[in-house]
Amino acid sequence: MADKDFEIDQESAGRFERFLFFMIPIIFTIVLIGVLLTLFNVNIRNDVLGFAQKIPIVKNWVPEPTKDPAKKKLDDTKDQVKSAEATIKELKNQLAAKDKDLEQAKQAKTEQDQKLKNMQEQIDSIQNSQTEAAGQGAGAQEADPYDKQIKDLAKMYANMSPSKAAPIMQNLTTEEMVQLLSAMKNDNRTAILAKMDPKIAADVTMKLKDAVSSSDLAVAALQSRVHKDAADGKSGTSSGLDKSQISQTFASMPADSAAALLLSTYKISPDKVLKILNDVTDSTRSGILDAMSKKDAKTAAVILNKLMNK
Fold it and tell me: What number of other Cβ atoms are within 10 A of residue 262's Cβ?
């Protein structure tokens, strides 16, 4: 019995030894492969998983391969670089667009400044022309002897007492009184009108309210004097101007005013115009005829023809 148990124990020990004989090399090989894979960090697992992902059905059973951290970091860095480059490119495009807008704005500003400069030059030129014209007009007015004479007469009446000036001026025509009063200051004019006959003062006041130029006042005054002298001549009075007075009167007038006066008179009394032109000096006559030809060439030619035939 003891021998039989011993044989059974020997048979069991032999089986275990045979098992160890085959399993020890297999276990050693598996451990060795695991150690080598750990040491050399081989991406065999990822390669195998990647290969398995390409198989239609098997890809559903295996997980996705784990990416290498360094490679992932490198890929992230590349993506960031690409994003930064795209951002830089976009910013460069925006900067180029802004530069283009700025250049257009500068060009528009330059054109606007040039327009303003041209307009300012035109305004300065117009102002200079107006200043020169005003200066020439003032000089011409000051140099006009007829206007100077009217101002001197107005000053003379203004320096007189109103009670003495008023009756003297009432012997003038209404237009002559208006011409002299227009050349006075308002205080002197008011004082003289207060001493005039109320009806005459009212007629003068009505004409004073119609403001006209000094040349128009002169023409109106001279026309009224001519009409008055003509009326006095018809009534047999002998208060008309003599030849020297007529010559002096028209010699002191501007040629344009004298021409306008004579053209108007010619429509009423052609003979008086011919007489006046015969009485004035040659230089005065030539100036008046020249001004008449500019205003009414046809009438001036008729008057000249009558002067030559007379």
Answer: 26
The mean predicted confidence, pLDDT, of the chain is 78
Angle between helices 186-195 and 162-169 (to 10 degrees): 70
CB atoms within 10 A of CB 305: 10
- Check residue 17 and give its pLDDT: 81
Nearest to 172 by CA among 209, 225, 216: 225
Rounded to the nearest 10 degrees, what angle do helices 270-279 and 255-268 cross at? Answer: 140
SS3 of 48-94: the string is: HHHHHHCCCCHHHCCCCCCCCHHHHHHHHHHHHHHHHHHHHHHHHHH
Contact by Cβ (8 Å): 169, 180: yes
Task: State the pTM of this model.
Answer: 0.34
User: Quick check: 184 and 195 in contact, CB under 8 A?
Assistant: no
Q: Which residue type sits at 161?
A: S
Please write the tens of the pLDDT for every residue from 117-157: 887 887 777 777 767 766 665 555 555 677 777 888 888 88
Structure token digits, residue 257: 């005013």
Supply 49's token pair. Answer: 């998983």
Least confident range of 38-47, 57-66, 73-82: 38-47
Q: Pick from 224, 156, 146: which is nearest to 184 by CA?
A: 156
DSSP 43: T
Q: For 219-248, what is the mean pLDDT? A: 65
DSSP 310: -
Token pair 């006066």: residue: 261
